[in-house]
Amino acid sequence: MSDHRTPRNEHGIPAPQDRLLGAGPELSRAEELPSDVVEVETRSQWQMFRRKFFRHKLAMGSLVFLIAVVIAAFNAETIAPYAYDEVNVVEASSPPTLEGLHFFGTDQLGRDYFSRVLFGTRTSLRVAGVVAVLSTLIGTVLGAVAGYYRGWIDAILMRFTDLVIIIPALAVLIVAASFFGQGQPLRIAVILALLLWTSLARIVRGVFLSLREKEYVQAARASGAGDLRIMFRHMLPNTIGPIVVNMTLVLAAAIIIEATLSFLGIGVNPPTPALGVLINDGRSSMQTLWWLTIMPGLALVAIALAINFVGDGLRDALDPTQQEH
Amino acid sequence: MLTYALRRLLISIPIILFATFLIFMAVSVSGDPLADLRQLPNITQEQIDNVREARGLNDPLPVQYLRWVEQIPQGGFGEYLISPRPIWPDLRRVLGNTLQLVIAAEVLAFILAVALGVLSAKRQYSVFDYTTTTLSFFGYSMPSFLFALFLQVIVVQIFVRTGVRIFPIGNLSSANPGTGIAFVLDRVWHLALPIASLAIFSVASYSRYMRASMLEVIHSDYVRTARAKGLPERTITVRHSMRNALIPTVTVAALSFGTLLAGAIVIETVFGLDGMGRYFFQQIGRRDPYPIIGWLTIVGVIIVTFNLVADILYGYLDPRIRYE
Known about the structure:
The complex is a heterodimer.
Chain A: H1 16-21, H2 29-39, H3 45-55, H4 57-74, H5 76-79, H6 113-149, H7 151-166, H8 169-181, H9 185-195, H10 198-211, H11 215-222, H12 227-235, H13 240-264, H14 275-283, H15 291-318
Chain B: H1 2-30, H2 35-38, H3 45-54, H4 61-75, H5 88-122, H6 127-141, H7 144-162, H8 180-218, H9 221-228, H10 233-255, H11 257-271, H12 276-286, H13 289-317
């Protein structure tokens, strides 16, 4: 035993792991560690995530609200008390009331605004959903390729990302929407997706740059796995947290941007109900029939707020540095 | 540092040119720039052909675009297609108005956000902290145009009920704005609602960054050391914590300048202000590509500059960061 020298660092203090393990040469660390770990209740990543997320009351409440809104909006035909273009002059210009189920009031033609907002929400959610999925796909693939291959591929892709960032998104949207995509929700969604992938691409690239040096990636490469398999089977699952959080951000942003475009008259075309279209419709009579602007506006804010709260809950739950308390 | 900045600016020139090229092609392909001219009552086909010839519209589009690029060094942004007036005076006017709006909103948002962020961090988990956090989520989720509309409804309702006009809901100046300090005050009064609408998102966003970085700094060793030395709490907050916590916030604020500029387009539409946004919409309606690409160049240069400013500030504020 006397010939065993405890390794010391430059301050002459024994390195901590030697004190913990008793420095006995006959005790290897590999034998000692498992007996420790077995006593701790093990939780999978997924279980830990669920526990943390369910405890986040605001996020849970928002999720329930969102699910209710999605179900209501996509069953608008059965749930809405009226069709979205049903004219009823007798009950025209009514403020929000329980009478005749006009929760959000009616406009000058007597169209029920609760029903219109419900149908409008469906259009807005569809656009936002397509934008979120499409931009996540683009951002993930471009970011992964840039971060994995580095070198000139990375340089080209990042300059391309810079290009998309430098062009003021709203200007492109205005030009593109007013020349190519006016009216159709799907076209608007594609244009938005083509502009909103940049931040995710940068995030995924950053994570991939650090992950590609990890041992398990080296191991996968050594065992003969192909580039695609390493990128999407091994590295992508470890990037899922930032991707999901970013998806909620894009979802909220897409809803707001689509509403802004429709409000400016270059998004979804008026006969199709969308939240921004409804707000713009109400604007001309904003000072007398305030509910025509405020009600769709509040619906928009409520949905965006709920998405942001869910995103916040996800961020907390997916962040391994945040301890449960 | 200087070479780094120069290289960045040089790289951005082709990017901006490429962007203007794309937009030029898009605008030219999608509409007839002489539509306004054709609608004049006494116009003949010959006159239209003359204009087409004189303005080079019969050349291939890339040639037209290159001609525009060539004349930038001497002619600035060229002339409108139909009326041979220079574009730059118009652009300069609307740019000035928009910059007033955007810079005021940015400064206001930054000051408010720093104050809110520092206070929430100093009182983490207090009622104040929870309130600002919740409010910032509202700020994130509220489209600026909607907030502007809400403000307009409130101000007009107050005017209708009490006869007091707190703020105007349109225009940049009164009919007789006066001169000197009276003019400035009149402008501030007119821009109050647009500035508030534009700033709300930035306040929400910057204050989150400020709070997060302040929390990180407050719990660092050197702040504990400062406290152990017995320095007054004020000095610790202002001189030791805040200075370092400002670094990410400054960067975010500089990077967000482009977003703010885009937001101004929407806000100007709501308030009917003679700025970049309204100008852009007018020119889009006229299908004239030259003012649009001129507009885009200016906006592009501003965004590139502020991205660069963000990076340089970052390096200046945090000496550990070096650029080659």
